[in-house]
Amino acid sequence: MSEKNRYETPIIRMAVERKLISDKQYDHCKELVKKSKRIGLEASIEEVLVKQGFLNEEQMQELSEIIRLGETGDLFGGYRLQRLIGKGGMGKVYEAVHEFTGRKVALKVLNAQFSKESTTITRFFQEVRALAKLNFPTIVTLYDAGKAGRRYYFAMELVEGQSLAQLVAEKKHLEEREALSITEKIARALAFSHANNVIHRDIKPENILLDERHSPKVTDFGVVMHQDDDHMTLTQEGFMVGSVHFSSPEQVEGARDIDGRSDIYSLGATLYYMLTGRTVYTGKSAEEILTKHLVGTWISPRRYNPAVSRRTVRLIRKMMARSRERRYQSMEEVVAVIRKNIMPRLYLRVLIAAGSAAALFLTGAIVEGLTHFFQATFLP
Fold first, then answer.
1. What is the overall mean pLDDT for the chain?
2. In angstroms, how far apart are the furthest CA atoms of the chain?
3. What is the value of pTM for the model shown?
4. pLDDT tens, position by position, 65-107
5. Any idea which fold 70-158 has?
6. Burial letters for 261-277: b for 16+ Cβ neighbours within 10 Å, e otherwise?
7. Which residues pair with 108 in a beta bridge?
8. Rounded to whole angstroms, how far apart are CA atoms 58 and 41?
9. 144 in catalytic set
10. Regarding beta strands 151-157 and 142-148, do their DSSP bridges make them parallel or antiparallel, or are they unpaired?
């Protein structure tokens, strides 16, 4: 029997190939299936593997989805699917490897039920068009897009690190300088995006990935709005997009004329989250949280993290001003203010370090001079 035909189903073959189960575990479960049949009990090999604890339900579901998606086994649109790394309302994201080039990518595949919905497909490729326009170091790079079978997909840069949300959850909150540095890099990326007439509209910790050098990468442009004259936006009056904890007041109100200042508000809320480990507003329902963006009382992050400077509090307060006209009017302004916040502290640290080094040097010189003096004076 060939190795390919040794296993009853593609799912089992893939589980063994990916070393989720061993051949020994497989043979053990296969024997249990035979014994069950002899006493009149019907059980599939997959069911037995789960009952024996060799695979869990989530792993089985993921393998099943990859098999259903793949053209042949785990191959889809020229990409070999490795594992599911994320999912949302519109589709799933897989780690994958391009069959011919060997490049590792994040492959976003539109859910099957949406493949015939023209509005959803338009929104999906709106993200593709947005990413295609944005070649910037701190924005994920688009590699490829297309259709395989009846499913639409696009391949983008795989960021092999954690999200900003995961980092904050791990650390509870970030040190101010680190938070400001990350915010500045995101603001520079969004300044580039806005200059190319692309508004993100869903800036939040989950959509900021951190690469192996701990540098942020902005991702998930799924609810972007193009401001090209020849592009008709998908949003309509009264339709809100974005995440409830980080949405701007104008998004909450369903305004049609969303601009870059909405991203400034969301980035301010993200900075607040980095510094405190808390969202600006909380509530028992989405509606309550959204209402607070419109009329809620803004609590200083210093209440939760007294180490936050007043300069940074003023920065966040202006970024999150309820009225767009009272916020910073561009991401370039945000970058400039952050630089002013960071650099004085940096110079101060350099001066303190230099002063400490000078003091140590002077102390050492004095001690050495006194030693020589006493040796010359009192020792024979």
1. 83
2. 106
3. 0.72
4. 787 776 556 788 889 888 888 877 677 889 999 988 999 999 9
5. Phosphorylase Kinase; domain 1 (3.30.200)
6. bbbbbbbbbbbbbbbbe
7. 93, 154
8. 25
9. no
10. antiparallel
Listed as own residue / partner, the contacts of 25-31 with beta carbons closer than 8 Å and 24 or more positions apart are 25/49, 25/52, 25/54, 28/52, 29/54
Cα distances (angstroms) measured from residue 223 to each of 24, 124, 202: 47, 9, 7
Cα–Cα distance between 288 and 279 in angstroms, integer? Answer: 14
Residue pLDDT, tens place only, 119-168: 777 777 777 888 888 999 999 999 998 888 778 888 999 998 899 999 99
Q: Where are the domains of the chain?
A: 1-55, 70-158, 164-342
Ramachandran angles phi, psi of 81, nearest 5°: -75, 135
CA angle 329, 209, 195 (to 5 degrees): 30
* Residues facing residue 105 across a β-bridge: 96, 157
Marked catalytic residue, from 202, 220, 259, 263: 202
Gap between the Cα atoms of 335 and 180, Å rounded: 10
Distance set, CA 114 to CA 54, 81, 91 (Å)? 34, 21, 9
Burial of 9 (C-beta count, 10 Å sphere; 0-12/13-18/19+): middle
DSSP string, 58-93: HHHHHHHHHHHH-SBTTEETTEEEEEEEEE-SSEEE
Model pLDDT for residues 304-355, shown as the tens digit of each residue: 999 999 999 999 999 999 999 999 999 999 999 999 877 555 555 545 655 6
Q: Which fold has domain 164-342?
A: Transferase(Phosphotransferase); domain 1 (1.10.510)
